[in-house]
Design a protein that fits this description.
mainly beta, 3 domains, 44% strand, single chain, 29 strands, Jelly Rolls, 2 helices
Amino acid sequence: MTNTPNLALPYLAAAQAQKHVTVNEALGLIDALTQLAVNSVGTTSPPATPAEGERHLIGANATGAWFSWDDSIALFSSGAWLRLIPQPGWKAWDVSAGELLIWSGSAWGAYIPSLQNLAGVGIGTTSDATNKLVVSAIATLLNHAGNGHQLKINKAADTDTASLLFQTNWSGRAEMGTAGNDDFSIKVSADGSSFREGMRIDRNTGAVSFPSGMEPERHSVGSITKAGGPDWWGAVDPFTLSYSSSSQQALSQNRMFFMAFHVDRPIQLLGAFVSLNVASTTAGALLRCGIYKLGAPNGDLWDIGDRVADFGTLPADVADNKEFNLGTPQTITKGWYVTAMGVSGAGAYARYARWMTPGLTRFYPHSSGTSAYPQTVAPQVYLYASSSNAEITGGLPTSWTSNPVTTMTSTNNWVYQMVFPKWREV
């Protein structure tokens, strides 16, 4: 072998005379190929007045002194053109275009380092073992290529998590995605460790639910002035507002009146309010109210479930706004409940308020048996029970042993709401 295998530099022969000739030739080639920068790319004919050491990447169908040198490197040295045949992996800097080229073995092309299977990428910062791609910038743009653009977040199994996490000072504050299942949910946190689920979309039906409820419209009941703070009176569900009516409802002696309502999230029960507009004519008459769970539907009637709170009694022989307060606030969970209210004496009237929504509709329990479901209807109904003296003077029982509840359409197509629970967020 008379030349090196990669750069084709000439070897010195044993006992060679004029050794400096061979050495100088090798040095010239090293000078030409080290930090290779070419004056042009794709040129097919030699320039008229080349400078010593000038280099070119020859294009196809070369002519003149470069004939048949296609894709080779032409070096002008000592007044003549010298052909340098590239090897796979050789790189050349295109001076005119400011671009790095690489010889693949068959063509010169722009050199792009491999971006596959990188250990991490940090843009404006440093990646780490968990965050393999990190961008520290004012904004990040993902633009379309064609008609649109998709950002895909994939997980291995439905019990895994695929989500977007929003942080404050590296502590989670909001998360959206499929976390632990395939329902889409949005969660928020005040401390980065305990999250409350605000919205959930069922993966099978597309139905939207609000596990933590929706912020209610907190309208005060007539004749009550709310002095600020977190407490409010009335319905829990946010679709309902209440306002006072000048009308009044006669309270039959020893008859309980009921109203079903829905609680859409865990919430704290503080008490209740009843406006007794006209006093009972019975001396020592008592007004009593409480809250029960709504039991199972029973034909056209409804059973009443377990008692949630017995607010006790207040005098009914004096007309006044009656405010009942629980000694210990009680947290109740999502579900259907029933307010209960009655008097032990005759002649009492309660001012009622109307629960309404845009469209004059409200949720109430409908149908019976396993087909029972909340339905939005108008006109509205309220629930009432037949006479039972023990329920008024003897206190509200822990549970009802019989079915006392039926429905009655209100005379003006509105709900007679006479007991307004008092609430506070948990």
